[in-house]
Amino acid sequence: MPTYKLNSGGVVVQVEDLLGRNPTGGWVYQAPGVGNAGAQGAHYYYRSQTQQGSHKTAPKDGRFDFDLDVAEAGTYSILLRVSRDTANPGDARNDIWIKVDNGTQSVIPGKQQLTSGGDGFVKYKAGPPPGKWVDAKVFSTPTHGDDNAPSDVVLSKGMHTITFAPRSTGYHIDSVKIVKKGGSTVVNPQPEPEPEPEPEPGGGVTSARIAATHDDFESNKAAASGDLEFGRDGAGAQSVGLRFKGLEVEAGAEIESAYFVFTAAKTSAGAARLAIEIEDTTSAKTYSKTAGIDGRAYLDESVTWDVGAWQKGGTYRSADVADLIEAAIGDGGLDALDALAFRVTGSGARAAYAVESGLGTPQLVIEYA
């Protein structure tokens, strides 16, 4: 959880610092310039997974939070920069759940009752015109016709935690401002770096993402594509190639686990069984029309992955490919100049975002001891 110092009267927190490029729980990453125009960098929208389009109580999935180190006690306004897709239905597209410390209700000035989402959350409301960005600045009340309470909270000196939980489908979020009432200059410091965890002696974790358009490839495509269709696409069965560079594993290390992380580009629920192979080299070449996937030399071993249902925008981990990587690298380890390449084939259909999409980048994670 990142920590922000609130020592100049205010702070701005970009949501991409909290959710990253692979959010979970129904949030969908929107790269700068993608989606609703006018965002300050990246933003996120919520793709509800409920029939009603909104959560009546704060869900466990999709929560995100940050800590505030408050230097001066006082009353602060919480301003959330938001947008929405359409004006209808109004209640399902214009709010989010918020919790301050153990419960927002306990830190608001005055006695006005707020709409409860359970677990200390209350409804934070805004209804901007479709496609427009505004600073939301009111909490919602449970009784129709009541004046909505300003999104003000009383914070003592010291550490406080602000947590958001998704509620409304089609709701876009960009940044959070915490501003001291009475006025002060709003500053935007970087989060304090969290201390690096101490690795176990002789062990660690290394990871890499697809770095460029020539590092992921589909055998049935004549050009770059925004998604990677595993198993079958419209032209039938195809191979998908994945190349990762920049991994570092100590010589002689034992690989305990390794897996890919994908962001789903489509919702798919049918049966899918994929086979993962590794190229017999630690100096795999980039892909092109003349240096494709299927003409390369792969080890005899393969890993079978029975893939569960995917929800668009969700992140999913592959079957463990540790044995494949150990077989390819032996005792020599990996350094930043090495490159591993994999071929994925099989039955069924799943689609993940490719690096070209700007919405999600396939990742390889290796844990070793």
So what's the overall shape? elongated
User: Beta-sheet strand percentage?
Assistant: 35-45%
Structural class: mainly beta
The helix content is: under 10%
DSSP summary, beta strand count: 27
Q: Total helix count?
A: 2
User: How much is the radius of gyration in Å?
Assistant: 24 Å
Poorly predicted ranges: 183-200
Q: What would the average pLDDT be, to the nearest integer? A: 84
Distance between the termini: 26 Å
Largest sheet data: 8 strands, mixed
Order of helices and strands: EEHEEEEEEEEEEEEEEEEEEEEEEHEEE
Describe the structure.
With 369 residues, the protein is mainly β. Helix content is 3%, strand content 40%. The chain is built from 2 helices and 27 strands. Strands 1, 5, 7, 8, 9, 11, 12 and 14 form an 8-stranded mixed beta sheet that branches. Strands 2, 3, 4, 6, 10, 13 and 15 form a 7-stranded antiparallel beta sheet that branches. Strand 8 (116-118) and strand 9 (121-125) form a beta hairpin. The longest helix has 8 residues, at 322-329. It starts with a strand and ends with a strand.
